[in-house]
């Protein structure tokens, strides 16, 4: 079942836009866009504007994965 536009926009409440998410992760907004295009950290798109939005919990999980990758074995 598809959500209507209003439901999709409501779902974005509490999510971070690219600039906010980039600052949270300590990377550039362009890095986030590249990760989205590569499928590494996929954004939710605004149904009208197409802007990227990120769930804070997804960013936390991703950051944990990055830290794990960089830890010496």
TrEMBL record:
SUPFAM superfamilies: Putative DNA-binding domain (SSF46955). GO terms for molecular function: DNA binding. PROSITE patterns: HTH_MERR_2 (PS50937). Gene3D superfamilies: 1.10.1660.10. Residues 15-63 form the HTH merR-type domain. Signal peptide: none annotated. Pfam families: MerR. GO terms for biological process: regulation of DNA-templated transcription. InterPro entries: DNA-bd_dom_put_sf, MerR-type_HTH_dom. This is MerR family regulatory protein.
